[in-house]
Design a protein that fits this description.
CATH class: Alpha Beta
Helix content: 25-40%
Distance between the termini: 24 Å
CATH architecture: Alpha-Beta Barrel
Oligomer: single chain
Strand order of the largest sheet: 1-2-5-6-7-8-9
Structural class: alpha/beta
CATH superfamily: Aldolase class I
Order of helices and strands: EEEEHHEHEHHEHHEHE
Shape: globular
Number of strands: 9
Number of domains: 1
Bound molecules: iron/sulfur cluster
CATH topology: TIM Barrel
């Protein structure tokens, strides 16, 4: 099966750039499912370019144009309110491709909001601050805070990098500092697990971010 980079969920468009991740979260959808609404997000190969992703995005846009009775591609572009980098892996592991595709979206669909869902490990992985490179390309970043302290974070996220919790906190602060709309998130209710969301919200706000609780739903959507 060919790689699925672009998929749709509840009328919104998502981009899947990798199956690699520096976390192994206990609630990760990848542990239970191969697909999101029928789109198999396991990539056949990670050997691809930004042009491959953009080509699929263009096909996706065209098919949306064809699906409406009298929709033109221009109208679909206007309807495309947001595109989110998400998928079955950590998008910033393919940072160059992410930036190239985001730049393409900004240039060709200037009214479209670009969002990124991330585990917040990018600066640790790259050993530099990559957030200024995202400013202007990504409008909103959602960072998986997951827990109010390092111990619980490690239990939930099972990170493969050192000092991951501190790295996540620093990343959230960097995003807010660069004036990117930033939301720290936690997943509540996985197999009865309860997170102190008030403590998490306080941490998020002190770092300059907004906060959102995602109730865990079996199947993920
Ligand atoms: S950060 Fe996301 S992709 Fe990575 S293991 Fe956790 S839920 Fe899965």
């Amino acid at each position: 099966m060919a790689n699925i980079f672009v998929y749709e969920l509840d009328g919104k468009t998502y981009i899947n750039l990798t199956n690699a991740c520096t976390n192994d979260c206990i609630f990760c959808l990848r542990n239970d499912k191969d697909d999101v609404c029928g789109a198999n997000l396991w990539l056949e190969t990670e050997n691809f370019t930004a042009a491959d992703v953009i080509a699929q995005l263009e096909t996706h846009m065209s098919s949306r144009a064809c699906s409406g009775i009298s929709q033109t591609l221009k109208k679909v572009q206007g309807d495309m309110k947001e595109i989110t980098f998400c998928g079955y892996g950590e998008p910033t592991l393919r940072l160059d491709i992410l930036k190239e595709v985001a730049a393409y979206i900004k240039e060709n669909f200037p009214g479209t909001k670009v969002r990124l869902n991330t585990n917040g490990h990018a600066n640790a992985i790259r050993q530099r601050d990559i957030v200024p490179e995202l400013a202007g390309l990504v409008d909103e970043i959602s960072v998986s805070l997951n827990a109010p302290d390092e111990h619980q974070y490690n239990e939930i996220s099972r990170p493969k990098i050192k000092n991951a919790y501190k790295e996540v906190l620093d990343f959230i602060a960097c995003c807010a500092h660069n004036k990117i709309k930033t939301t720290a998130t936690v997943v509540q209710g996985f197999k009865g697990m309860q997170i102190d969301t008030a403590a998490c919200e306080k941490i998020a706000n002190e770092l300059g971010a907004q906060f959102r609780v995602r109730e865990w739903i079996e199947n993920g959507y």
